């Protein structure tokens, strides 16, 4: 099988859907994934969810600018198709998710209430972590969403532990551990890969390759910039996916889930994507040109992509406008709520510090 992005530099996004190479000797390969054949209703739902993330993140950026959100804030704009495509394939009752600090989109794609997420951003008691976690430390054990982690790469061994828990408890769940291209250069990632394959743990390692780690491009920092190959030494297969195409993301996730659920151990999905905004709200973005960003927006925007699919499926422009209106209302209400909800009482400083006695 041909590698998806063989003729492109890794600095470009928009490689074609899920192809993988038979790189590891004597190792069965996952099936070649296809684009998910979504129904019109499913396509509409993907559009809705991606638009919700985009408008939510734009609003979060505005509230940050007004000083209503403090600390760090990393926006997910541009990467929406990854979280929406992947999360839509998961079993919310069984599967667990863990990610880094760029986490609002994953929470929204998991169906968490935008009000509760926005209230966390503004540090209010009604926030999902009672206003004590902020942008980077959102958590919902009920939804099996285990953060929100500010330490780059930390979620990879933690996710491997979650996968160990799934296997040990025989609960049929799979862990999805998201991390970035920058994180993929860390040593702890490879210790986790080794254990995960050795113990055949049910985990999908999702590398969200948005081409940059803060201001450093993949090509400047990665000796092997085809990140789907990073599991080879551990005999973990990898698939490179067009992360700007929600149907490709969903299709590859189906393939990965089939692999993992059938007991074959971990798998890597490299999602080729792009972030339009700076690394965080305080990034002056001097390491890339405006033209580069604009060119990705023009050629590969994930929301425009689905809009075209919807038009082909016969959905009227007015129906899309109605969804846009509905989403703006949800986001405005979330912002109003997050601006007016009370702050936590000082006593909250002493809660949730330890889970219990050891
Ligand atoms: C262990 C550690 N080292 C460095 C940092 C500072 N830092 C925060 S984000 C980041 C870049 C990570 O980039 P990537 O993994 O590509 O994720 P992205 O921000 O692109 O989503 C760095 C170096 C940190 N938070 N933790
Ligand atoms: Mg990155």
Automatic annotation (TrEMBL):
**Stretches for region Disordered:** 1-38
Which GO biological process annotations does it have?
Answer: pyruvate decarboxylation to acetyl-CoA
Cite the EC number. Answer: 1.2.4.1
Top class in the EC scheme: oxidoreductase
- The chain's coiled-coil residues are 313-340
Return the InterPro entries for the record. DH_E1, PDH_E1_Alpha_Subunit, Pyrv_DH_E1_asu_subgrp-y, THDP-binding
Q: Which cofactor does it need?
A: thiamine diphosphate
The residue ranges flagged as biased composition, category Polar residues, are 1-17
What is the top-level taxon of the source organism? Answer: Bacteria
Reaction catalysis annotation:
N(6)-[(R)-lipoyl]-L-lysyl-[protein] + pyruvate + H(+) = N(6)-[(R)-S(8)-acetyldihydrolipoyl]-L-lysyl-[protein] + CO2
Q: Which residues form the Dehydrogenase E1 component domain?
A: 49-347
Q: Which UniProt keywords apply?
A: Coiled coil, Oxidoreductase, Pyruvate, Thiamine pyrophosphate
- MF annotations from Gene Ontology: pyruvate dehydrogenase (acetyl-transferring) activity
What this protein is reported to do is described as:
The pyruvate dehydrogenase complex catalyzes the overall conversion of pyruvate to acetyl-CoA and CO(2). It contains multiple copies of three enzymatic components: pyruvate dehydrogenase (E1), dihydrolipoamide acetyltransferase (E2) and lipoamide dehydrogenase (E3).
Q: How is the quaternary structure described? A: Heterodimer of an alpha and a beta chain.
- Protein's name in the database: Pyruvate dehydrogenase E1 component subunit alpha
The organism named in the record is: Stakelama pacifica
Encoding gene per record: pdhA
């Amino acid at each position: 099988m041909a590698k998806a992005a063989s003729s492109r530099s890794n600095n470009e996004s928009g490689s074609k859907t899920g192809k993988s190479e038979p790189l590891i000797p004597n190792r069965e390969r996952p099936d070649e994934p296809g684009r998910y054949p979504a129904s019109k209703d499913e396509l509409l739902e993907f559009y809705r969810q991606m638009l919700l993330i985009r408008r939510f993140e734009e609003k979060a950026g505005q509230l940050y600018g007004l000083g209503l959100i403090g600390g760090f804030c990393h926006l997910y704009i541009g990467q929406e198709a990854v979280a929406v495509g992947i999360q839509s394939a998961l079993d919310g009752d069984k599967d667990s998710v863990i990610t880094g600090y760029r986490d609002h989109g994953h929470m929204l794609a998991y169906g968490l209430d935008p009000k509760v997420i926005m209230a966390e951003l503004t540090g209010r008691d009604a926030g999902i972590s009672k206003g004590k976690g902020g942008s980077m430390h959102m958590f919902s054990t009920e939804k099996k969403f285990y953060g929100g982690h500010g330490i780059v790469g930390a979620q990879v061994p933690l996710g491997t532990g979650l996968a160990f828990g799934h296997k040990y408890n025989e609960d049929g769940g799979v862990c999805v551990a998201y991390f970035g291209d920058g994180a993929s250069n860390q040593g702890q990632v490879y210790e986790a890969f080794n254990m995960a394959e050795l113990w055949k743990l049910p985990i999908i390692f999702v590398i969200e390759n948005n081409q940059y780690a803060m201001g450093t491009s993949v090509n400047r920092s990665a000796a092997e910039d085809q990140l789907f190959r990073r599991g080879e030494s551990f005999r973990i297969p990898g698939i490179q996916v067009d992360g700007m195409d929600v149907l490709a993301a969903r299709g590859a996730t189906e393939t990965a889930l089939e692999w993992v659920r059938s007991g074959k151990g971990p798998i890597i999905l490299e999602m080729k994507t792009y972030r339009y905004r700076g690394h965080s709200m305080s990034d002056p973005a001097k390491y890339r040109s405006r033209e580069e960003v604009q060119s990705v927006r023009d050629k590969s925007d994930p929301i425009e992509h689905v809009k075209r699919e919807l038009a082909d499926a016969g959905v009227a422009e007015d129906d899309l406008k109605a969804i846009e209106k509905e989403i703006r209302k949800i986001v405005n209400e979330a912002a109003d709520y997050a601006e007016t909800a009370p702050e936590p009482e000082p006593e909250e400083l002493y809660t949730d510090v330890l889970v219990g006695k050891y």
